[in-house]
């Protein structure tokens, strides 16, 4: 167990606004956002279809009159249809993985980047970060928002960053030891790899100065938290975000570690039944929906995250007044997160189509043996595909492998199976079997 | 002078080969010879049977993927050097063996070698020119049943 104690600290006063003041602030910012999105043809259409004029939206109670935005909408508007400012005013672009091989692009103005850094500073501070600390960021730096988001958040607090980026575990540990790093930022599954390496190489725990870690980028469980905390002797904090909304910084745990505080001055949150689209009762699981309140470059209205979680409006012992969200326990679509990468079964289908020309039957099985995500794609053979030559069969497997890698960026095991051996489904096919433990 | 080989895809699953052999046995189909090519993930079973069309239908009805492939059968003396002579002929013609297997008709007398070459027509021509006995299906089944 960790001997490190995180004191309750709050980064800025917006986190403790009385609920009434918060609602008034949200209402005003919502009206501004609704005005701002009128520069986007997509929202002009959506508002016209819903018969809403921007002037009708005045308070938080009007939120539910607004149309939803979905991932499919963002894909259709690729690359920059959702931009509400001139390209000259954009300071940075990021992207998230999509189902078609093309990412969903997101954009930030200079002000957006400042907002974002401040939001990350909030949860980092809530989870132990002090200006004198050094933080090793083992997230990918690139289109993925994780690396850069946390990077600027740490700097915003005044602490120092070691931008180690993803991968190369021995080097990560060397840096951690030599630089006497205080905190680690990565995916929880990567933390398990790091921990495993430390144990296997008999690195004494007291050689490390590591005190705490901030995990995001994929769902994880309390069991994983206990395991990592026991093995590394640190405290682990959960944070949540998605590029379409801003990236990391949408919510994060405080020292109490009982749910993630949503930065409600920056985002309005709803939790809906994904079938009926009606709000669920507080504490009940549903799909999270976010509306941005202060984004300039890409404001977004009622974005359906497809992430399943619950909301807790009860006041927290830390003093923050914001609603807390639970861990994400699932998806209302079929997206998988494998090694921190978003993968849709439709991508596999698309890859298989590229190889053979017809949509075959397939199944994706995901497991986490030895703490690493392993995905296996089972593909049914047909007479057309079958060749009595081992070489040709291996070539077929290699082709499938390359096509999947090309679209998802991930290496998966390819297993050829007999025809009709995979279960058939009436209606929605169950293409995925996830053996990993759930949150 | 090519023969039909029945090639069957076998996924890496316990009992699959036994299931296949059981099916052929129940239907009175005798396996003259076979060869199993295996990889880490799957196998390809190559069968020589007399009633290959019937066998193919039976297997397909049970969910197996089966295909008919041309192979060449050559009869040689069951003694050292029998195979090497054939390989030398094909090598001289620039033909490669994709796979092969063999069975002995009567120990010390005759053996039959089954070949799949990368260029089957060229391979037949080269063997003919060298006056090597290529067996047709009738001859092969006769030898096997003798």
Q: Report the uncertain regions of chain A.
A: none
What pattern of helices and strands is seen along the backbone of chain A?
HHHEEHEHEHEHEHEEEEEEEEEEHEEHEE
Q: Which chains share the greatest interface?
A: A-B, 20 and 23 residues
Oligomer: heterodimer
Overall average pLDDT of chain A: 92
Q: Count of DSSP E strands of chain B?
A: 7
Tell me the β content of chain A.
Answer: 15-25%
SSE order and pairing:
The complex is a heterodimer of chains A (439) and B (146).
Chain A lengths: L18 H18 L4 H10 L20 H6 L13 E7 L7 E6 H17 L7 E4 L7 H13 L2 E3 L6 H10 L4 E4 L1 H13 L11 E4 L6 H11 L2 E8 L4 E7 L6 E3 L4 E6 L12 E8 L10 E10 L11 E2 L4 E2 L4 E3 L2 E3 L1 H12 L5 E6 L6 E7 L9 H19 L4 E5 L14 E3 L5
Parallel strand pairs in A: 3-4, 3-5, 5-6, 6-7, 17-20, 18-19
Antiparallel strand pairs in A: 1-2, 7-8, 8-9, 9-13, 10-11, 11-12, 12-13, 12-14, 15-16, 17-18
Chain B lengths: L2 E9 L4 H11 L4 E8 L3 E8 L2 H10 L4 E12 L4 H11 L4 E10 L3 E8 L2 H10 L4 E2 L1 H9 L1
Antiparallel strand pairs in B: 1-3, 1-4, 2-3, 4-6, 4-7, 5-6
Describe the structure.
The complex is a heterodimer of chains A (439) and B (146). Chain A is α/β, with parallel strands linked by helices and 439 residues long. Chain A has helices spanning 19-36, 41-50, 71-76, 110-126, 145-157, 169-178, 188-200, 222-232, 345-356, 390-408; strands at residues 90-96, 104-109, 134-137, 160-162, 183-186, 212-215, 235-242, 247-253, 260-262, 267-272, 285-292, 303-312, 324-325, 330-331, 336-338, 341-343, 362-367, 374-380, 413-417, 432-434. In chain A, the strands form four sheets. In chain A, strands 3, 4, 5, 6, 7, 8, 9, 10, 11, 12, 13 and 14 form a twelve-stranded mixed sheet that branches. In chain A, β7 (235-242) and β8 (247-253) form a beta hairpin. In chain A, α4 packs across α5 and α7 runs parallel beside α8. Chain B has helices at residues 16-26, 52-61, 82-92, 120-129, 137-145; strands at residues 3-11, 31-38, 42-49, 66-77, 97-106, 110-117, 134-135. In chain B, strands 1, 2, 3, 4, 5, 6 and 7 form a seven-stranded antiparallel sheet that branches. In chain B, β2 (31-38) and β3 form a beta hairpin. Chain B starts with a strand and ends with a helix. The chains are: A alpha/beta (439), B alpha+beta (146). The A-B interface holds A 381-383, 386-391, 393-394, 397, 414-421 and B 5, 7, 9, 11-13, 16, 37, 39, 41-42, 44, 46, 60, 63-67, 69, 98-99, 116.
